Amino acid sequence: YSPAEFIPGAKYYQGTRSPIDKDRELHGYSLAWMHHKGRNKHHFEYWTDINPETKRYEPVEMPFNYVVEMFCDRVAACKIYRGADYCDGDALNYFLKNRARDTMNENTASILEKLLRLLAEKGEDEAFREIRLLMGEFRKTR
Predict the structure, then answer these.
(1) CA–CA dist 79, 84 (Å, integer)
(2) 3-state class of 116 per DSSP?
(3) 2 confidence band (pLDDT: 50, 70, 90)
(4) Smallest Cα–Cα separation from 44: which of 29, 12, 19, 66?
(5) Confidence (pTM)
(6) Which of 22, 51, 113, 127 could join 12 in a cystine, given CB atoms 3.0 to 4.6 angstroms apart?
(7) Taking a C-beta distance cutoff of 8 angstroms, is the pair 33, 19 a contact?
(8) What are the φ and ψ backbone dihedral angles of 54, each rounded to 5 degrees?
(9) Would you say residue 142 has pLDDT above 90?
């Protein structure tokens, strides 16, 4: 973490949710989040660019390896914030509740949702087994 991310993270740490949420409540935005998402390719918000036809910022498809990192990041955050109450459906519920799909590239959102549903329905071992298979296919195409 850079100081731009670490200091607000330490200052607004609560243990049950992201310090970014508190930062936003107090200031209306979070410089720490803007810094983080702009430098970490596992965040779908990183993957926007100006569409040459519409001249607007739009989501672009994420490479599969970063979708896997995003999946892991979401599962890890749920485990941290939910603690002993964590269950394998938490990351899917968070994804559906927060409507990230609405601002994400359609293919990226579909892959992420598929992996989160697999986790929710069949558990972590099965989800990571599928990810390993898909990563093998992804590497062959590079």
Answers:
(1) 8
(2) helix
(3) confident
(4) 66
(5) 0.87
(6) 22
(7) no
(8) -90, -15
(9) no
The rounded radius of gyration (Å) of the Cα atoms in the chain is 16
**How far is Cα 125 from Cα 133, in angstroms, rounded to an integer?**
13
Q: Say if residue 75's pLDDT is above 90.
A: yes
pLDDT for 1 beyond 90: no
Containing H/E element for 48?
A: strand 48-50
CA separation for the pair 116, 134 (Å, rounded): 14
What per-residue confidence (pLDDT) applies to 138?
Answer: 84
Distance of CA 3 to the CA centre of its chain: 22
What span, in angstroms and rounded, lies between the C-alpha atoms of 31 and 27? 9
Exposure string (b/e) for 4-30, b if CB count within 10 Å is 16 or more? ebeebbeebeeeeebbbebbeeeeeeb
pLDDT tens-digit readout, 16-73: 889 999 999 999 999 999 999 999 999 999 999 999 999 999 999 999 999 999 999 9
CB 78 within 8 A of CB 90: yes
Q: What is the spatial distance between Cα 135 and Cα 128, in angstroms, rounded to a whole number?
A: 10
- Distances 31 to 5, 22, 28, 109 between C-alpha atoms, Å: 8, 12, 10, 25
